[in-house]
Amino acid sequence: MSPVSVGRRIRAAVGAAGELMITLGAVIALFAVYSVWWTDLVADRQTAQQAARLRAGWSAPPPAGGRARSAGAVGFLHVPALGRGNEVLIRAGTGADVLDTGVAGLYEAPYRSAMPWDPVGNVTLAAHRDGHGARFHDLDRLGPGDPVVIETDDHWYVYRVDGVLPQTSPDDTGVIAPVPERSPYTRPGRYLTLTTCTPVYTSLYRLVVWGSLQRVEPVDARRTPPPELTA
């Protein structure tokens, strides 16, 4: 076989391999987009069902002795900076069985999250940034002074963002401690900590947002939201 023929065959093989790699890359990219879109769709359906059940329970007459506090669905997180109409269901737990349903999960370890109604403590929440509802996709929009509201069956808990940690290790568990490390706080109080993965489409690091409770408002018969959610 002449050197010219060998060269042609080599160029043909390289060209075919290059086309195969381009095709494979396109397939992988399309699969990633499809996976994110599909998990978002499934999570939206799941969380809509859970939210409807919770609100239906709230609207039912309370039993004698008052409504019992649940360790499952707790309420809703409202973050105006993430856009009007943003409402995130809050549930206990941060495992895939919880977060993949499109909710914000209350940490249970290494520090158990406080509840909004506790007289002191840190309410610590995690949610996906991409896929599975991506409830905290735009969490990096939050900055000091932004309001964050938790809605329960009987009260609105209004927090103000005091600090943001743009990036830290997933092993930096001190950021969700009762008095969170690296936060603006130095003594026990009523705090809120929101965490998610960063940068987007990775799980390399964690983004952390800290807030403190400003006031508590009772829920009226019409469930009129506080002004922070209507501005």
Automatic annotation (TrEMBL):
CDD domains: Sortase_E (cd05830). Keywords: Hydrolase, Membrane, Transmembrane, Transmembrane helix. Coiled coil: none annotated. InterPro entries: Sortase, Sortase_Class_E, Sortase_dom-sf, Sortase_E. The chain crosses the membrane at residues 12-37. It comes from the Bacteria. This is Class E sortase. It comes from Kitasatospora arboriphila.
